[in-house]
Design brief:
The complex is a heterodimer of chains A (about 120) and B (about 700). Chain A is built from five helices and five strands, in the order βαβαβαβαβα. Chain A is of the alpha/beta class and about 120 residues long. Chain B starts with a helix and ends with a helix. In chain B, the strands form five sheets. A six-stranded mixed beta sheet of chain B has the order 15-19-20-18-17-16. In chain B, strands 4-1-3-2-5 form a five-stranded antiparallel beta sheet. A five-stranded mixed beta sheet of chain B has the order 7-9-10-12-11. The chains are: A alpha/beta (about 120), B alpha+beta (about 700).
């Protein structure tokens, strides 16, 4: 069974890239355009893993993770943070928010897919 | 989606982000900014950087990074956005847009332009911040160097609460290790509470020891724990074969997979049931309180948009065109049928027409785009031009929300660029010259868009010196475009600018005069079915007005009869229709007629003879004159046999089948199914103007010869 990924990013380029990469690897992909949309989609869709951008309008990526972890649905889902920064401070914040891991943009397709496979057990 | 399609989407997105950026910066300049404005500006740059990285657009990424760093400081109140900084941010926004353009055109960045701005940006960052900002992409993929001999690694792994709280599942980690090589897995359960009531679901009671065989080094194992290293107790060490205590020794209570050669599939069912669901759902009663109680302040939802293949829209537009033709066919049929009691039917028909027009407008609206991104680009070009020429120019845009067909927006970019550069280079005077003539030192260039009765009007208005008509005429004479003693009205002189071959070569600067003359501008505008007009007052400035049809596919036409043929004249160029009385008419020479209207004389063009067909009536008083507004001869009157109707027609190009036909801009299908040609008034008038000039010149030569 292919895993279902929810990808949240306000950049449609990144969304397109993620969708292309993940669908090619056989995942089912749902996209959301900002944090609010992301949390909404998360509650509707049975996501096996969430990838979220950090800097987004309306609700940032940490807010998304917070909502997921405090929510009632599927709260232990793995969440990957997609970020351009690779600093320790950011990782610290991501971790505090409850992120499972982080991917630094620009992401390497194969590495991304292998991380997701590992985190979803597919 | 193919890679190139994603790249296209990226550049489209950049356009939107650049608009957001420039809007935000403007709000900051105007003092209207709140923290969300600064955030939005930051995000725009950040998004460009993030996506550009995916395409290895390094110039863009590098610049965006420095830019973003400064914005981040502003965002976190470490930097104050004073005039100085805002000026640099503005400049940086321009450079970013240039870099996007360069990336799109796949040309290298202009380092001479980019680097100084990077330096300026950096000057706002403290040395500390600059040093901290060592910008490295963290590579995710790991490479293995050399072929060291395979070894076994012992992994001791004790996940804790934090591990479970961040969406991790130990089973998956073990499964990932098993993918690396043969594993011996043992689990230590000594910490499990005896008393079930004191059991906490996400407490880390279990410790796993996994011996992973066949490893060159510990990199692959560490990669598995990439995100979890600090969330669990973790030791990874090469197996020490000298050690007495081998793996799975006495203190490990339970050997799960003792067989080295046949690794056991660690499925959840094999594991103690307590740790299987790290995702223990919250009690039902809890659900509404967390979800529903979170009624935060209403958030602005991202505008939901639909991205559609333009071809589909084109097909729809075509179909709507056919619908409009169909509607006129039905009208005609009803007329011909001469039905009794047709009043109701006509009422229904009117509804149908109304609906068809509504559908047409709706479909056109899909293609419509605000001119804003185009105008923003023009502002940038204007600022650069002002910088390059050392002129102080205040650039203002108005009516950015005006919507124009997508194709029009795209095709206006080049003509507008040229005109903006011209206006700054040739129109607006240097600060010194302006001061000398009591003008404010800073010139003003306004770019406006508005919708006026079925047309879009775009104006470029400068408060410069105005056109130097003497010089223009002189150049035109030198180029052989007009004779030296020709008497030309101001308007006629102004229009010489658009004449092919009128190049401003003698005043070439590195800015304008790049081989694109105003004739190219005019050609581009005409190709869009538009017109361009100039008005200029010496010492006060010049205004270029571009009038464009709202739609390219459908236009309002006057259906006329001429020599037994039915044709269409665009209503946009008709000022009025006149049935002349003999007193209104005058003659010059043998064949030239003039119409006197409100004290002015305008030439009459006989459309039939111009097109080589015989008019039904020969006397002008039996015919109808259409007073036209054109550029080349300002006003002229087109003589036709009769006016039949006024209606929307669908414009079909004939270029594919017949090539360019002078005087004819296309064809349409009428209600009776017949094809009618659409007249191009501009081209007809231009021929007339040339002939008049030739005749005047010839007459002069005759009179010269006679003396």
């Amino acid at each position: 069974m292919s895993a279902h990924i929810l990808a949240i990013d306000d950049s449609r380029t990144i969304r397109a890239l993620l969708t292309a990469t993940l669908e090619k690897a056989g995942f089912a992909v749902t996209t959301a355009v900002d944090g609010v949309d992301g949390v909404e989609k998360f509650q509707q869709a049975q996501a096996d893993l969430v990838i979220t951008d950090v800097n987004m309008p309306n609700k940032d990526g940490f807010g998304v993770i917070d909502d997921i972890r405090q929510g009632s649905v599927n709260r232990a889902v793995p969440v990957l943070v997609l970020t351009t920064e690779s600093g320790a401070a950011l990782k610290e914040r991501a971790r505090k928010a409850g992120a499972t891991g982080w991917i630094v943009k620009p992401f390497d397709d194969d590495a991304l897919v292998s991380v997701i496979r590992r985190l979803t057990g597919t | 989606m193919t890679d190139s399609a994603i790249l296209d989407a990226f550049f489209e997105e950049c356009e939107d982000l650049l608009v957001a950026l420039s809007d935000g910066l403007e709000d900051m300049r105007e003092g209207r900014a709140d923290s969300e404005t600064v955030n939005a500006v930051f995000r725009a740059v950040h998004s460009i950087k993030g996506a550009a990285g995916a395409f290895s657009l390094e110039d863009l990424v590098g610049f965006a990074h420095t830019f973003e760093t400064v914005l981040d400081e502003v965002r976190s109140d470490k930097l104050t956005a004073d005039d100085d900084l805002l000026r640099v941010l503005q400049r940086a926004g321009d450079i970013l847009a240039n870099l996007v353009d360069a990336a799109r055109d796949d040309i290298p960045a202009d380092r001479d332009q980019v680097d100084p701005v990077i330096e300026e940006l950096q000057s706002f960052l403290g040395t500390e911040a600059a040093a901290e900002e060592e910008f490295v992409f963290e590579a995710l993929s790991l490479s293995f160097d050399g072929a060291a001999s395979a070894a076994r690694y012992v992994v001791r792994f004790k996940p804790g609460q934090e591990f479970y709280a961040t969406g991790n599942d130990p089973v998956l980690f073990i499964a990932a290790l098993q993918d690396l090589g043969p594993c011996e897995i043992t689990v230590e359960k000594t910490e499990l509470p005896e008393d079930f009531d004191s059991f906490v679901w996400n407490e880390g009671y279990l410790t796993w020891q996994i011996i992973v065989g066949d490893q060159q080094n510990d990199l692959a194992i560490r990669e598995v724990f990439q995100f979890a290293e600090d969330l669990c107790e973790l030791q990874i060490a090469e197996e020490d074969l000298d050690e007495d205590a081998p793996a799975g020794d006495a203190d490990l209570a339970d050997v799960v997979a003792p067989d080295v050669d046949t690794p056991v599939d660690v499925a959840p069912v094999d594991l103690p049931p307590v740790d299987t669901p790290p995702a223990a759902p919250a009690p039902e009663a809890d659900a509404p309180s967390t979800a529903a109680a979170k009624t935060e302040k209403p958030v602005k939802r991202a505008a939901s948009t639909l991205r559609v293949d333009p071809e589909r829209v084109d097909r729809l537009i075509n179909a709507v065109g056919e619908l409009i033709i169909n509607q006129s066919v039905i009208s005609q049929r009803i007329d011909e049928a001469e039905l009794p009691n047709s009043a109701e039917l006509y009422g229904d028909l009117d509804d149908y027409k109304l609906l068809a027009r509504e559908i047409q407008e709706g479909v056109m609206a899909i293609r419509a785009q605000p001119v804003k991104p185009l105008f923003q680009r023009m502002l940038r070009i204007g600022r650069e031009a002002a910088d390059a020429t050392g002129k102080d120019v205040n650039l203002i845009t108005e009516g950015e929300g005006t919507e124009v067909d997508k194709i029009v927006v795209e095709r206006l970019a080049d003509p507008l660029t040229h005109m903006i550069r011209n206006a700054i280079d040739h129109g607006i005077e240097s600060p010194e010259d302006r001061a000398a003539t009591d003008k404010p030192k800073t010139g003003t260039l306004r770019l406006t868009a508005s919708q006026r009765s079925g047309s879009i009007v775009i104006e470029i208005i400068d408060d410069g010196a105005g056109l130097n008509r003497k010089r223009i005429k002189q150049i035109a004479v030198e180029k052989g475009l007009v004779s030296a003693d020709a008497t030309l009205s101001e308007q006629e002189i102004d229009h010489l600018l658009f004449a092919p071959g009128f190049s401003t070569a003698s005043v070439v600067t590195n800015l304008s005069g790049r081989g694109v003359g105003m004739d190219v501008v005019k050609t581009a505008i005409t190709a869009l079915g538009g017109r361009i007009a100039i008005s200029s007052v010496a010492g006060q400035g010049t205004t270029f007005s571009i009038t464009l049809p709202l739609t390219l596919a459908v236009m309002d036409g006057m259906i006329i009869h001429i020599g037994g043929q039915t044709m269409v004249v665009p209503i946009a160029s008709i000022l009025e229709t006149i049935r002349p009385s003999p007193a209104d008419l005058a003659e010059i020479g043998l064949s030239n007629h003039l119409l006197r209207i409100r004290g002015e004389y305008v030439p009459i063009i006989d459309l039939a003879s111009r097109l080589g067909i015989a008019p039904r009536a020969t006397a002008l008083t039996d015919r109808v004159l259409l007073l036209l507004q054109t550029e080349s001869v300002s006003q002229c009157a087109l003589a036709v046999d009769d006016i039949l109707d006024q209606r929307q027609v669908v414009v079909k190009s004939m270029k594919g089948s017949y090539g360019e036909i002078s005087g004819i801009s296309g064809a349409t299908i009428l209600g009776d199914g017949k094809i009618a040609l659409i007249i191009d008034p501009e081209a007809i008038a231009a021929v007339q103007a040339n002939e008049l000039n030739a005749q005047v010149t010839a007459q002069r030569e005759v009179s010269h010869a006679a003396t």
